[in-house]
Amino acid sequence: MYAQGTESLIKQAREINDEELVKFYGRISKLLLNKDYGNETVDSLQRLHLIVSATKYGRRLPSDLLEKLQALLCSPGSSEQLQVLSSSILREGLPLSVAKLPIKDLQDSRTTSYVASVILAQAKSKAELAELSHHLLKAVEIRQPDVQVCRHTLPILSAAIRSSPDVLMEDHVNLVNRKLVDWLRYASNQQGASMSTGGFFMGPRARQPAPMNEVDGAVAGDFFTVLCVGQSYTEDQWMNMYAFSMLRKWLRTYDIEENSGSGADDRSEVDGSVMSMVSATSSSSRLLPPKERLREKAFEYCQRLVEQSDRKAVKKADTELQKACLVEAVTIMNIICKEDPSFVYRAFPCIKALYSRLSGDLAFSRVLLPIAQFYLNHSETAAVDSEAVFRQLFSSFPAELFNEPMLAFEFVQFCRTNMAVLQESMPLYGQSFPNLLKVSPRPSVPLVSPTPPCCHGNHNLCLCRKFLAWNSPALVSEYMELLPSLLAPSTAIELLHSLLDLPCLAAVLDLQLRSASYAASEKTLWDSGGSKAPSSLDAFRQPHYRGMFLYILRPEAGTGDTIDRLRMLHDILADMVESPRVVQCAQTVPVLLHVYFHTVAQFADDKLINQLVLVLLERSSLLMDIKNYQTEVQRVFSSHLLALCKLHPSLIMEQSRELLDMAGSTINIYQKEELYTHVVWAIGEYLSLSHDARCTVEHITSSFETLEAVLFEITQVRQSASAPRFSPRLVTVLMTTLAKLASRSQDLIPRVSLFLSKMHSFTCSAPVVACYSEEDREAIVTRAHELVNLLKLPNVAQFVLTPSASGDTPRWHRDTNASLPFAMRALSGLLPKHNTFLTG
């Protein structure tokens, strides 16, 4: 969010009219022509930058102004502030010809970097980027008088190849490979020269170069890396740091073997031998081609970083640097091993030792992700067991680090990126849905003793949801992709309950963190009679409610689909329903439910569909009381209930008692009208002999009488009664369903016809007139009129209201012998044109 003053300036920049803009361009051109580089020029350029960048569309600048800005940018005598402003404006302004920027004639590194940033932003073709890249490579290859040329050039080159990797030819790639080797491996191990004062009577004198130090203060005993510290750095040490920062991107872009197929497999087998391991580490590495030599030196560099990370840093900032370098080093080693499997055998002892050292230290949790990636990619090649690594990954991460947003994102990205590989080749991931991971972590604030070994469960189902509950807005798109891989027939029901309880989980995780910050002495006294409900935080500590909270925080699946005291849990968490985290989590649930049902529909059998429908009916009333949450979830239930009925129409018969219990209660109309309407429609559509041979007249009559009683109750409106609290759509659906049922049991036709004939008086009552529009009242009367006329011809009514089960893909528009429009036209011709049965 911008401050009010900033928003006002941006609005002014967007709404400036063309006439004023032309005058402003002219004033700036005049200032630049007179080479007046004072405060007025700086202020005008700052305003121009705001104008050209305030909209998503590029502003077209006059050609004379563009030329003056280019001249200002390329002038060696311009101040850095003016170069920054002109570069920023040229990156946004249109039209700009990159060819007019004299990149080849520039000598100083600062101007080169600013001009290059404009070319990167405005280049329209590969040729323009190639010219820039070739110029930068020449600057790297030829030693310039300005010693900082390479330091400024390397980041620009990295950005250029990121935009268009194919701009470099093989010779250029080999050149950079050789330079990277020199910068990584042969940087000076002495600190840069620094000036010191020699006292009052003596001028400043240069100190003798001191050796670089390790992070623990010891003198660096090996070659220089980014983990070597000192008071000042030489130019080659700066290049060492720059080279390491772009190494991962460079290897992923250009360190790809051109040969593939059987030849690559043969080379892998040879390189995997002991002889290849010895030869790879021999002194003959200088004779290797540039690509292989870069791999070798990069691998040695990463090994040195892993070794340095074992030192205890004196400064906290160096500790954070160690963590970042470990992540980068393990990732680079993984890339190298993927391209050359011979490195796997050299890397695994280092990686295994690193994992053993860090696995118990949650401060280095982010390093475990690249370690797990390394095991996932190479454990099979090296015949190394990776089960312990993934036990650690899928247990400790979500259970204890759910409130670390960056770690949560990286963890979910790891699962998402490797989803297919984990399912196919990692037994722990495959068994987790529905099989078990047998190590259960304790919650951060233990409520009871850990789960006994005999109570097995599924870690991913319960632990990953903690990341989702705590970080739901940021991770919802990732979980939309990840959720299908977590679904299996045996865990589908529990996962559905877990999704519906995500707001509860978010609330309880919040309580868990807050409870840990309070001292035990601050606990409130309880009302032993239970007449006063404790607050959610107090209840979290009370042993009486321990079971409920423990279930929500369970580390394993398989202990039960849900609990019996959900309503009590919702009452206890009532003071959390307006918590921003809980509200945001509730907003993501409907999105994930759509993904859930679309995925389940692909493998659900009849038994599972029946179970799902029972859960929909039960949980539609058992949801946390968050604003709009129940309405949105019920809307999702409604749409997917129809899809489940279409997959398995017999569920209307198999779950007839539960469906009629819901449809027969008018209170459900006022609490969940959307779902109620769809249940009524499903009964009318699928309670038929054509969908289930078990359907009898008794079943149809029972359903008819139940719905008839409901429609009678809600349409008996007295003059003094309040306005209806249900939509006209519900009334028409109930009428249509009664007509459908009557067409299948023709003894019911007189009853429904008599009932429908009274709908005119319902629509004319004062409360209905006050609540419904004229169009809604007319729609109710018209529907009743149509249904009564249709039921006068029972055989035609059954044909129209009860289509055959094979009518899912009708061809009535082509088949003249079974044309529904033709049948309807014939019926209209047989019925009287004017029928006054609804009057009075």
Structural notes for this entry:
Residues 1-280 form the AP-5 complex subunit zeta-1 N-terminal TPR domain. This is Adaptor related protein complex 5 subunit zeta 1. With 840 residues, the protein is an all-alpha fold. Among the domains are: 169-192 and 211-253 and 289-317, no CATH class; 341-438, no CATH class; 461-516 and 536-630, no CATH class. Helices cover 63% and strands 0% of the residues. Helix 10 (235-254) runs parallel beside helix 14 (316-339), helix 21 crosses helix 24 (502-516) and helix 24 (502-516) runs antiparallel to helix 28 (580-600). The two termini are 63 Å apart. The model is unreliable at 258-283, 430-459, 523-533 and 834-840 (pLDDT under 50).
